[in-house]
């Protein structure tokens, strides 16, 4: 079975739950560190990945791209980090759920709404598909507006614990 | 409209993509230790499956069927799905950089699993029109999200429970999801055959 890529939740300064995940620093540019999550997908990350069709599909979709293309840009105090460090980043759990709802559920709802309205007005299948595409564009614009108002970024909490026997930058304390 | 609601109910609960069709089991077991991650993963997959259902319907009805290219179905669907998931990631990166930053660390924004391809292929078998195909995909993905959320909630509770060492971890998860599967069989009487 796959290990979850989420570590147990901790609390932040205000007593709110934090969702934690381990990531590796792949590059540092000024005060910005590029992080790559340790486990990017539940599927295709297991021992059978080389024989798995889903893993092949994920690679075809771009999941196998290494390095910075797969990394996420998170601004952190770079003097505390070095390339190769394994760190723990945290995000408030309500912020994660809100971000997912804004990014995915909002465009989806507008897209389906537009398609349903087009269908109810008697439009043909081509027009319904066109209305759905228009709804998707409108939904993404709405998500952009809502996301800019509500998004809260993750922050670096600490260096990750290093498995016994390994060496490297990770051993430095935060 | 009633027809659409019944279709959603049927695909989400009665013919659940995870517990009845046994698709998408890998992310169900791997990403269901936290309710928040399960919600995010479920929503991402819902978006991709719905988009893939629409794209695959257009491909099937406007290209493969008219030119008798059915033998290319699986290959072309994989390409379309790959394009759909890439589009999803690009769209979020371009339209909502702040959300992309928040979500990208935690969730696999590129969500591909056998459920995405499976739902697209099942859609062709059903022979639905465009909107019904989209709703079939959406309902299946909704079922996937519901199971992911319930299973994550159960596993969060299970993590606090005293479980015998022989059953802790994977065995307890498999027993839990099999009980969940039995529970979902109760929905089978909702809509008369």
Biggest interface goes to: A-B, 66 and 62 residues
Which residue ranges of chain A are poorly predicted, with pLDDT under 50 across at least 5 consecutive positions? 1-9, 62-70, 164-174
Strand content of chain B: under 5%
- Strand tally of chain B is 0
Q: Sheet with the most strands of chain A?
A: 6 strands, antiparallel
Task: Quickly give the structural class of chain B.
Answer: mainly alpha
Oligomer: heterodimer
Shape of chain B: globular
Main sheet of chain B? Answer: none
Whole-number mean pLDDT of chain A: 69
Q: State the end-to-end CA separation of chain B.
A: 19 Å
Q: Please indicate the count of domains of chain A.
A: 1
Radius of gyration of chain B, in Å, reads 18 Å
Based on helices, strands and strand pairing, what is the structural class of chain A? alpha+beta
Number of domains of chain B: 1
Secondary structure tally: strands of chain A: 6
Determine Rg of chain A (CA atoms, Å): 20 Å
The ordered H/E elements of chain A are EEEHEEHHE
Number of helices of chain B: 8
């Amino acid at each position: 079975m796959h290990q979850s890529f989420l570590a147990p939740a901790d609390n932040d300064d205000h007593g709110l739950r934090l969702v934690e995940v381990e990531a590796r620093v792949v590059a540092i540019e000024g005060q910005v560190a590029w992080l790559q999550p340790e486990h990017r997908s539940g599927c295709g990350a297991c021992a059978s990945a080389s024989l798995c069709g889903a893993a092949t599909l994920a690679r075809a979709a771009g999941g196998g791209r290494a390095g910075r293309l797969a990394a996420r840009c998170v601004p952190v105090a770079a003097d505390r980090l070095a390339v190769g460090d394994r760190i723990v980043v945290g995000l408030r759990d309500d912020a994660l759920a809100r971000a997912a709802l804004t990014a995915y559920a909002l465009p989806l709802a507008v897209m389906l709404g537009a398609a349903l309205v087009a269908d109810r007005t008697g439009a043909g299948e081509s027009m319904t598909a066109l209305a759905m595409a228009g709804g998707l564009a409108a939904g993404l614009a709405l998500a952009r507006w809502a996301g800019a108002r509500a998004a809260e970024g993750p922050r670096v909490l600490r260096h990750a614990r290093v498995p016994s026997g390994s060496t490297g930058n990770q051993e430095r304390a935060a | 409209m009633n027809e659409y609601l019944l279709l959603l109910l049927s695909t989400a609960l009665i013919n659940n993509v995870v517990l009845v069709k046994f698709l998408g089991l890998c992310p169900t077991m791997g990403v269901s230790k936290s309710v928040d991650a399960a919600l995010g993963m479920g929503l991402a997959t819902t978006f991709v499956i719905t988009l893939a259902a629409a794209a695959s319907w257009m491909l099937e009805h406007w290209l493969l069927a008219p030119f008798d290219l059915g033998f290319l179905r699986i290959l072309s669907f994989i390409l379309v799905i790959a394009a759909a998931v890439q589009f999803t990631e690009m769209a979020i990166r371009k339209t909502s950089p702040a959300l992309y930053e928040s979500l990208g660390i935690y969730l696999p924004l590129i969500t591909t699993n056998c459920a995405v391809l499976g739902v697209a292929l099942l859609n062709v078998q059903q022979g639905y029109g465009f909107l019904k195909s989209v709703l079939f995909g959406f309902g299946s993905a909704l079922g996937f999200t519901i199971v992911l959320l319930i299973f994550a909630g159960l596993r969060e509770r299970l993590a606090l429970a005293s479980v015998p060492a022989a059953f802790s971890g994977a065995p307890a998860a498999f027993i839990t999801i099999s009980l969940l599967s039995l529970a979902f069989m109760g929905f089978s009487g909702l809509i008369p055959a």
